[in-house]
Structure formats: C-alpha cells, structure tokens
Write a structure and sequence with these properties.
Elements (H helix, E strand, L loop, with lengths): L2 E9 L8 H10 L4 E9 L8 E5 L5 H18 L4 E5 L2 H11 L6 E4 L6 H10 L2 E4 L12 E3 L21 E6 L8 H7 L6 E7 L4 H16 L6 E5 L6 H6 L3 E4 L8 H8 L4 E3 L19 H12 L3 H15 L1 H13 L1
Parallel strand pairs: 1-2, 1-4, 2-3, 4-5, 5-6, 6-7, 8-9, 8-11, 9-10, 11-12
Helix pairs in contact: 1-11, 2-3, 3-4, 5-9, 8-10, 10-11
Length: 339
C-alpha cells in the first residue's frame, strides 16, 4: 500500500492564494493508495475518498509545531508513508525530518517563492529534494533543487474568445497587493495605452498589503486614470476562469525570479501574457517579456500580445499542458519520492 503525507497551511480549493493545493492533492491521490493531509485548517469534502485530513491547529506557534509532530507520529503508527511533501512551508519539512529520516522516509519540499528566510536554509540541510517550477524559482543554490514544472489544473480552463475589434483593451494584473507584484508598473504603463483598461485583483494578506493598495490608489489618481483602472479585492479560485475569459492580456510585472502560477493559468485559457520574470523564458518569446520595472517596455509588449494569433495561443496552452499540468507535476513528485 502506497501512502504520502502532504503538509500545508490550508486546504481550501477556493482560497485565492493556496487553493491550488487541493488540485495537487487530488492528483497525488490518483497515484497513491492513500494521501494524508496535515493542515492548520481546511476541508476534504471535495477530495477523493482515499484522502484524509488531519489538523494541527493550535493557538501558538510553539504548540502548532508540537501538535504537528504529534499528528505525524500518530500517522506512523497507522503505517509508514512512502514520503512526506511539505507544500510551500519549509518549516514543515524541518519539523518532519527528525521524525522521518531515522525511518528512511523521504522528505520533499515544494517551494516557489523568491524569499525563503532562515527556515528554507534549514530545510535544505534535511530534505531529500526541493521541488520547484524552475531551478531559478528557489532563492537557494543547492544540488537538491529540481525543476519539475508547475501544478496547474488545466481542466479548469478553456480557450477564451478573442475580444471584438473596436472595444477597449482589457488588461488584468492578478496577485497580492504586495510591492513585489509590481502592480504600480502596470498602472504606469497605461499612460502609453490610451485605449486600455486595467483591473487589479489581489489579496490583502498583511497590513503592508493594505498600504500598497492605498499607494496604488493614489498613483491612479495622480496619473488621471481613475476611469480606466479598478483596484478590486481578491477573487476566489473558482472565479479565475471567468475572470480570464473577460481578459485580453494578462500582465505579470512581479519583480525578480518569480514563477507566478497565474501566468500559466492564463496561457491555459488561451489568454496572451506579458511577463517580466526571466523564469518564463523557456515558454514565452522575447516579444512577450518586458524589462523588469519598465512601464514603456511593458506597454509595447502588450500591443504584441493583444495581436497574438489564435493558433499561437493554442500552442502555448499545449505547452502548459505538457510541462506544467498538475498531472505532470504529480508524476514528478512520485518519481522524486521513489528516487
């Protein structure tokens, strides 16, 4: 009997940031006899029958760590897992390693953020592998980093219809209201795109995010763009396909070596993308990538993207299906565990 433990912060298929984890768990469940999800919170109602959810929620960080190890130890009594995969949180790998390594259970970490902090360094010492979209999408130089593509549930997306000529160019910037997301660069680009409208949708996960959103609102007023820019709240994951269907070009101005999944989700919906991150250089041509922080270059690339032929849009979707689908991702995770 095969068994995998999946450790994550939250298992909620509709969460705007962490919702993709549910599709990952479903894909792993199709390849394992049992998947046990350890999470602070969540629901397993929409998941297969061979998935069990166990919470380690507690009022303090210290108690959460102790409860995590206690729940993990209880799972060992029920049967030795083939591997543990820590999802986006290196601390879970650090906590699991002392329990699992003596039993020769592989400890894997899935990580795609630009900042890892102290815990990522600690995790690098104790895990068997760090899995990511690209070797550049982990802020760490280590032989343990393995590129396996993203885990996009491509079944959620169908090719969007092309906007009728003559209407405004509908741009979308989707992501947290954080400085690193570069929403301000997209707003500034609209001064060179007089026929374009922009919707920004993002989560305010921290007090600083609220401050970033307020500064964006000030910038919109300064540039006289109030009639063409809307700064809206985050959208649940189930609404992302509908949002993309109303979009002509997705703009991703995230700074640095980002691998934002929304870029791949847009391509899966046949929506053209312009992005700043070099990580997408194996997928997007130079004409669809712009210099980080450069609104003029961004505006020029938007024009190119808006005119992308339908056959090229379908070709990009097929590349996402081949390299970044959640099925491909799950195959790679299972292979890493066996390796």
């Amino acid at each position: 009997m095969t068994k995998l433990v999946f450790a994550t912060q939250r298992l909620d298929p509709d969460h705007p940031t962490l919702g993709a984890a549910a599709a990952m768990v479903r894909a792993l469940a199709a390849r394992m006899d049992e998947v046990v999800v350890l999470a602070l919170s969540g629901t397993a109602g929409s998941l297969p029958a061979n998935v069990r959810l166990r919470s380690f929620a507690a009022p303090t960080q210290l108690l959460r760590g102790a409860r995590f190890e206690s729940v993990l130890a209880a799972e060992l009594v029920r049967g030795r897992p083939d591997a543990l995969l820590a999802h986006m949180s290196p601390v879970y790998a650090v906590l699991a390693a002392p329990v699992l390594r003596p039993l020769r259970v592989p400890v894997l970490l899935w990580f795609t953020q630009q900042k890892g902090g102290v815990q990522l360094g600690r995790a690098a010492h104790v895990v068997d592998a760090i899995l990511s979209v690209d070797t550049r999408s982990v802020p760490l130089a280590s032989s343990k980093v393995r590129a396996i593509g993203h885990g996009i549930d491509t079944s959620m997306f169908t090719c969007a219809a092309v906007n009728a000529p003559g209407g405004p160019l509908r741009l979308l910037s989707l992501g947290r209201y954080a400085d690193v997301k570069g929403h301000d660069v997209v707003v500034r680009a609209l001064t060179s795109l007089p026929d374009a409208e922009l919707i920004v949708r993002g989560e305010e996960a921290t007090p600083n995010d609220a401050s970033v959103r307020a500064r964006l609102a000030d910038l919109v007023r300064e540039l006289g763009l109030s009639k063409r820019v809307r700064l809206l709240d985050a959208v649940s994951r189930s609404k992302v396909p509908d949002l993309l269907a109303e979009t002509d070009v997705l703009v991703n101005a995230t700074h640095g070596m980002s691998a934002d999944k929304v870029v791949l989700e847009a391509l899966a919906a046949c929506v053209p993308v312009v992005a700043a991150s070099p990580v997408f250089d194996t997928l997007l041509s130079a004409e669809l990538r712009f210099a980080d922080g450069d609104p003029d270059d961004l505006a020029a690339r938007v024009r190119t993207a808006a005119g992308l032929p339908a056959d090229e849009r379908r070709r990009l979707r097929s590349l996402v299906e081949a390299r970044h689908s959640v099925e491909h991702w799950a195959d790679e995770v299972v292979a890493a565990a066996r390796r």
